[in-house]
Amino acid sequence: DIVMTQSPLSLPVTPGEPASISCRSSQSLLHSNGYNYLDWYVQKPGQSPQVLIYLGSNRASGVPDRFSGSGSGTDFSLKITRVEAEDVGIYYCMQSLQTPLTFGGGTKVEIK
Amino acid sequence: QVQLVESGGGLVKPGGSLRLSCEVSGFTFNDYHMSWVRQAPGKGLEWLSHIKDNDRSVQYADSLKGRFTISRDNAKNSLYLIMNSLRAEDTAIYYCARRQRVLKKATRGTTVVDFYYYYMDVWGRGTTVIVSS
Q: What residues of chain A, 27 to 56, have a C-beta less than 8 Å from chain B?
C-alpha cells in the first residue's frame, strides 16, 4: 500500500497569513499520463470531508482561489495564501494512483 | 440539490452484521461511481470500497478481508455496504461519497489521449456504527 505522510500534525495560523501543508507519498504518484494522482480534502469541525484539490493542482468547483496544490512524484503541498477563520479544520491528502486509496494522517489547522 | 443520506448504523455486538444504506438525490445516480469511507473515533479517514456506475466493478481495502460487500440499486438511487463479522475496530462513522468524473487530456509523444479521473466530490453526513458487547 502507498503510505501518505503529512506534516505538520498541527498548524496554528494567524488570519490573513499564509499557510502550507506538506504531503509525502511512499511511491511516486506520477501516472504515465503525466498527472499526479493526489487529492486534498478538508474536514471542518462537525462536518463531512469536502474536496479542495484533485490531480495535484486542480481546484474543485467552488473552492476559493486562495487554495492551491502543487508538487510532483512523492512531494506535494497545499498552500493557503491568506488564511480565513472558516479554513479551520483537518486537511488530508489522498492518493488515488492505486487501490487501496490511502489518506495521510491529517493536518489540523487552527487559528492562533 | 445534490444529497447523500446514510442510514443503517447502530450498536451491534462483535461478530454481528449490519447493512448500511446511502440514498442519493439531486443527480442521476447511475451515471456515477460511488465510494464508502470511514472514520474511527478521533482518527483519520480510511477508504473502504468503491463501485462503478454499472455495478460490475468493485474494489475493496485489503483490511476488510472479505467481510464487507458494496452494492448498489440504481432503480432505488441507493448504495449499500453489507458488513459481516464486525469487530470493535470497525467502530466508526461511515460516509458514502460520490465519485466525480473529469475528462482530461494527456500527451503521449505526438498523440493526445483522453482519460477520466475520479475524485470524491460530494459526501454524506455519515452514519455511526458502534461494535461493542
A: 33-35, 37, 39, 41, 43, 48-51, 54-55
Query: Which letter, b or e, does each residue of A52-64 get, where b requires 16 or more Cβ atoms within 10 Å of its Cβ?
Result: bbbbbbbbbeebe
For residue A57, the 8-state DSSP code is T
Q: Does residue B107 surpass a pLDDT of 90?
A: no
Per-residue pLDDT of B22-46, as tens digits, reads 999 999 999 999 999 999 999 999 9
In the predicted model, is pLDDT for residue A79 greater than 90? yes
- Contact indicator for B123, B22 with CB cutoff of 8 Å: no
Q: Residue B55 corresponds to which cell in the numbers above? A: 455495478
Contact A38, A76 (CB under 8 A): yes
The sheet carrying A4-7 orders its strands as A4-7, A19-25, A75-80, A67-72
For residues A78 and A91, give the distance between their C-alpha atoms in angstroms, rounded to a whole number: 9
Cell of A43: 474536514
Range 56-95 of A in CB contact (< 8 A) with B: 58, 60-61, 90, 92, 94
Q: Which of A51, A96, A104 sits opposite B121 (nearest CB)?
A: A51
CB-based contact A38:A25 (threshold 8 Å): yes
**CB-CB contact of B124 with B37 (8 Å):** no
Q: Which amino acid is at A53?
A: I
Nearest by CB to residue B126, choosing from A39, A48, A55, is: A48
